[in-house]
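Predict the holo structure. Ligand: zinc ion.
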Amino acid sequence: MINRINHVAIVVEDLDAALRFWRDALGLPLSKTEANPGENVDIAFLPLGESEIELLEPTDPDSGIGKYLAKKGQGMHHLCVEVDDIDAVIARLTGHGVEMINETPRVRDEGTRYAFVHPKSAGGVLVELYELPE
Ligand code: ZN
């Protein structure tokens, strides 16, 4: 079952500059910022309804997201869809001929399992799947 959009991730050059739009001008609350050295990004989390905007500022130009910013510039990076059973959703997608970036879910420290659908199978959108821990 598909539950909701968990978050929309946006790549930015500078978190403080981006917050001048998302927090100060638009008025979204900033719940936290955190460094994610594993993925070479600093992240600002802005809750929006049952979802969240995540602003990602690359901290290393040679990382995946750093290269993405250099090549494509600022903008939407991915859309994250939350599901109950990520293995069942991946099986369903691959059964429909959809190409995954990773068919085996990865696991975050807090237990969230996640996988990415290749944008060429999703109309140019990088789609992340999330299965939250119980
Ligand atoms: Zn994400």
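The beta strands are 2-11, 32-36, 41-48, 51-58, 75-83, 106-107, 113-117, 127-131. The longest strand covers residues 2-11.
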